[in-house]
Specification:
Layout: E1 9-11, H1 38-50, E2 55-58, H2 70-80, E3 85-90, H3 97-106, E4 109-113, H4 119-125, H5 132-143, E5 150-156, H6 165-172, E6 178-182, H7 205-208, E7 214-215, E8 220-222, E9 233-236, H8 242-245, H9 249-259, E10 283-286
Parallel strand pairs: 1-2, 1-7, 2-3, 3-4, 4-5, 5-6
Antiparallel strand pairs: 6-10, 7-8, 8-9
Helix pairs in contact: 1-2
């Protein structure tokens, strides 16, 4: 059985989103926009905790703060599993008022994605869906709070915003615990990124170690957080236990394809994914002294072969 004590599960609490980012494949989504039910969330929380998971990220293909049940979910975790570390990925668009208070009280780490330092550039990256003035005000006010979670500001180096990266870095680095500047990834070969060497050099830990499972809003469980159209689903937490899902035949089949390299000739999105290729140049800058540019930017690693 797998050791899930160091695994991080991603919870797509909603697929609703007010943004329209140029690097996001949302235009190609083929599933319904929805909010995960409380029943589903409680079940996945109970099941994963029982199996040793202690880290959860609210994210996925939606804005976590658009979730009408967000408070109930966070309170359920706090009351029942207080040693769960809870993280969130957000744009800052709705990070204000009561929602900012809830985040400050319940979230341990928040990663704010912010891809522009001027109105023109920021709104071009989001294709006019998010208002620069509002987002910047929300983020500035949030960063000034005396009580708030460990905050990471992230910037993707895109053609639209490349010239603003230095100004963005100088502004946000003194205001938060960490900043990262990355090159974009390819979403399994479907959009930006994929500039690395086209040579398979590493095994995918998502598939072999089940270290990055994503619980989608409908309860389905995917091997990978980049699986935007759910091609790597291994089960559904609403009709099966987590313990059964991680050892079922579909999970083993996908792992065999990865272990033997056969996924390259398959229809899986994995064959075009830049995360199994050399991305040592993907991390452009970080203020985290423990991360090393050219090393920590590898999203995969040489995994040991495990018996089934």
């Amino acid at each position: 059985m797998y050791d899930f004590s160091k695994a991080v599960i991603k919870v797509e609490n909603t697929t609703l989103c007010g943004a329209s980012c140029v690097m996001c494949p949302r235009d190609e989504f083929n599933f319904h926009r929805q909010v995960m039910t409380l029943e589903c969330f409680k079940r996945l929380s109970d099941e994963t905790y029982r199996m040793g998971v202690r880290s959860m990220i609210f994210g996925g293909f939606g804005d976590p703060l658009m979730d009408v049940y967000l408070y109930e979910r966070l309170d359920y975790i706090k009351q029942n599993y207080p040693d769960f570390q809870i993280s969130m990925i957000d744009t800052g668009h709705l990070l204000e008022g009561e929602k900012a208070r809830i985040v400050s009280e319940y979230i341990d780490v928040i990663k704010i994605s912010n891809y522009g330092f001027s109105k023109e550039v920021y709104e071009s990256v989001h294709r006019g869906s998010l208002q620069y003035e509002k987002v910047k005000r929300n983020i500035d006010e949030f960063l000034s709070l005396k009580k708030r979670p460990f905050t990471i500001m992230t910037f993707l180096d895109l053609p639209q915003n490349h010239h603003e990266a230095v100004a963005w870095e100088e502004y946000y680095e003194p205001k938060c615990e960490r900043i990262d500047i990355w090159k974009p990834h390819s979403w399994g070969g479907n959009t930006f990124g994929g500039e690395g060497v086209k040579e398979i050099i590493v095994a995918c830990k998502r598939a072999l170690l089940l270290s990055d499972l994503t619980f989608c809003a409908d309860g389905s469980v995917s091997l990978c957080c980049f699986d935007f159209n759910r091609k790597l689903v291994i089960g559904n937490i609403l009709n099966d236990s987590f313990e059964n899902i991680v050892v079922n035949e579909e999970t083993k089949r996908l792992q065999r394809l990865h272990r033997g390299g056969d996924f390259l000739s398959s229809s899986l999105i994995c064959k075009d994914c830049d995360q199994i290729r050399d991305r040592t140049s993907a991390l452009i800058y970080t203020s985290d002294k423990k991360m090393r540019i050219g090393e920590n930017s590898m999203q995969t690693f040489k995994a040991e072969t495990r018996s089934e």
